[in-house]
Amino acid sequence: MDLTCTACSGQWPPADHRIADCGTSVAYLFEDQFFPGWTVLVLKRHTTELFQLSSDERSRLIEEVSAIAKALTEAFHSVKINYELLGNQLPHIHWHLIPRLVDDPSPRDPVWT
Fold this sequence. Notes:
Elements: E1 18-21, E2 25-29, E3 39-43, H1 55-76, E4 80-84, E5 94-100
Antiparallel strand pairs: 1-2, 2-3, 3-5, 4-5
């Protein structure tokens, strides 16, 4: 744990946005819901790169990402899920899963411009 990390210290994401404990990660509803269902999946332990995970932990994390993506697709009837794993502003592994819907105002554009 790195207490200088906002994810580790509990400063972000907001605790009241928690959706599910997935095992190696926790799912939160993202505060900006311009894209309905936008979810953030945050790794429980502090690390910054996928290659720093064991192959077993990496596999479990990808299974959790897939399970959340499937749940979002079923709940929001999305036509596509965007997956974002950047870490530039918050160097802690966390995935943004963004359902893209039929009536999406810019279906071919990235969510960040």
